[in-house]
UniProtKB/TrEMBL annotation:
Cofactors, names only: FAD
Coiled coil: none
Pfam family, one: Pyr_redox_2
Species for this entry: Streptomyces mirabilis
Region listing for Disordered, in residue ranges: 168-189
Domain FAD/NAD(P)-binding: residue ranges: 21-336
Transmembrane segments: none
Start and end residues of each Pyridine nucleotide-disulphide oxidoreductase dimerisation domain: 375-481
Family as reported in the entry's similarity comment: Belongs to the class-I pyridine nucleotide-disulfide oxidoreductase family.
Lineage per the UniProt record: Bacteria, Bacillati, Actinomycetota, Actinomycetes, Kitasatosporales
Keyword S-adenosyl-L-methionine attributed: no
Protein's name according to its UniProt entry: NAD(P)/FAD-dependent oxidoreductase
Source organism superkingdom: Bacteria
């Protein structure tokens, strides 16, 4: 496990003249890696700075470990939905093997493979805390206090991600709550787990730990997954409840108490009740990791989200040198969307460095147009929830004249063959003036694999008249498209 930030010997051996690079990337997660890769492909020299593990939050404490842990839970649940397979499920999950599977996919928190990949593309890796020190200048401080200065000819790209935010609740320090990190790297199943927050992280962690044998209580002020269509939260709530979780909507935590560090934690709720749990996890929001990267040296507020243009160039800066990618620009706190931004920005950096014209109009090679129109998201709850584009409420609020088409998955024979008594719902939001899709939402078993077809339809602005010629194979869950288009046509 490599967690000690230090400047690599290769980089330390360089002389001062070689401390200038075309591009400096702060953060070596998937987003930082992608912008570095595209800048290198454009023939630019690149330095990548990482203060923790190369691979970032996604690889070690978020997307990868959570999905590695969730897959066995959902696989067993899927088997129970099919007669004949249901009878084969005779025991509980082997939690030791589930955790070992997680450990395999996070490479036991050893980042040497990803560090070697960064070097393999021809980028130099610097381990340490990177801080901007004026325009086009970055200092790197290693764990032993050693400092190194890097200068950028063309660009500094901030890809430092986000961190969990803990609310200001009395007793929270004493309670020592979990965040997404403990929720994905722990290898002991608590008897009772209270999860605060009904967004994607809270819902996935409730699904995971209930499936591993904890008694989960999920507390949320609003209906679950509030940024999606309202019916999604209803279906997911039903799924969690049927799995044995206690889902309480419309409640808040007003205080915490854990006088014995080895004992249970008591949560005081705003309805006057108390809840005792062995562990408590907060999934109540995120903040950008921009508080200690030197933003003040270029006139920006430390700890702030960074406003960017269509090429991910930070607005309000003199010159075209500072970029912000992924979580830090607050457009979509999703790894795949950050990687899309990084690919686009890396190409734009290369074009600007060569003095080439930018293709930054809508849907151009150097424009992150999908950030506004076609952001896909999946939550691996049970059942799964997936959506792309605008919800009906968002589309109406944006001034579109829309038609909302709702279809029960049970109409598709393929869905019923996938799971006996398949329960799920699909919705498409149609722009009546152009007859293209503005958004699509699915909730049901296995719907994550349907989402890319919807993303292609929304991003491609495929006319519904043409979309009806995209024939869904029989008998698959994707037959739901046939019924959605038929319902729209009437």
């Amino acid at each position: 496990m490599n967690t000690s930030p230090e400047i690599t010997p290769e980089a330390a051996a360089r002389d001062t003249a070689e401390d200038t690079y075309d591009v400096i990337v702060l953060g070596a997660g998937p987003v930082g890696q992608n912008v570095a890769d595209h800048a290198r492909a454009a023939g630019l020299t690149v330095a990548v700075v990482e203060r923790e593990l190369v691979g970032g939050e996604c690889s070690y404490w978020a997307c990868v470990p959570s999905k590695a842990l969730l897959r066995p839970v959902i696989a067993v649940s899927d088997a129970r939905r099919v007669d004949g397979a249901r009878q084969a499920v005779t025991g509980r999950l082997d939690t030791a093997r589930v955790f070992a599977r997680r450990d395999h996919y996070v490479t036991d928190w050893d980042d040497s493979g990803q560090a070697n990949w960064v070097k393999s593309i021809g980028a130099d890796l610097f381990r340490g805390q990177g801080r901007i020190d004026g325009p086009r200048r970055v200092t790197v401080t290693a764990a032993d206090g050693g400092r190194r200065t890097l200068n950028a000819r063309h660009a500094v790209a901030i890809a430092t991600g986000s961190r969990p935010v803990l609310p200001d609740v009395p007793g929270i320090e004493e309670a020592r709550p979990w965040t997404n990190r403990e929720g994905t790297d722990s290898s002991q199943v608590p008897g009772r787990l209270a999860i605060v927050g009904g967004g994607g992280v809270g819902v996935e962690m409730a699904t995971l730990w209930q499936g591993l044998g904890a008694q989960v209580t999920l507390l949320a002020r609003r209906p679950l997954l509030p940024r999606m269509e309202s019916f999604v939260g209803d279906v997911v709530t039903q799924g969690l409840t049927e799995a044995g979780a206690d889902v309480r909507i419309g409640v808040s935590v007003t205080g915490l108490s854990r006088p014995d560090p080895a004992g249970p934690v008591t949560l005081s709720l705003d309805d006057g009740s108390r809840l005792e749990a062995d562990e408590v996890m907060f999934a109540t929001g995120r903040a950008p990791r921009t508080d200690d990267i030197g933003l003040e040296t270029v006139g920006l507020a430390p700890g702030s989200w960074l406003d960017v243009d269509e090429t991910c160039l930070v607005r309000g800066m003199e010159g075209t040198w500072l970029y912000a990618l992924g979580d830090v620009n607050h457009r979509a706190l999703l790894t795949h969307q950050g990687k899309y931004q990084a690919r686009t920005a890396g190409d734009a950096i290369g074009a600007r460095a060569k003095g080439l014209p930018l293709d930054n109009g809508p849907w151009g090679d150097h424009a992150t147009t999908a950030d506004q129109h076609a952001v896909p998201q999946v939550f691996f709850s049970d059942p799964e929830a997936a959506a792309v584009g605008l919800s009906a409420e968002q589309a109406t609020g944006a001034g579109h004249r829309v038609s909302v088409v709702d279809v029960d998955f049970a109409q598709a024979q393929g869905a019923n063959l996938y799971a006996d008594g398949y329960r799920g719902q699909a919705r498409m939001v149609v722009d009546l003036d152009r007859e293209v899709l503005l958004g699509v939402t699915f909730v049901g078993p296995g719907v994550s694999e349907l989402l890319h077809s919807a993303t292609v339809a929304v991003a491609g602005e495929i006319p519904l008249k043409r979309l009806r010629h995209a024939v869904a194979c029989f008998p698959t869950v994707s037959e739901v498209w046939l019924f959605m288009l038929k319902a729209y046509k009437g």
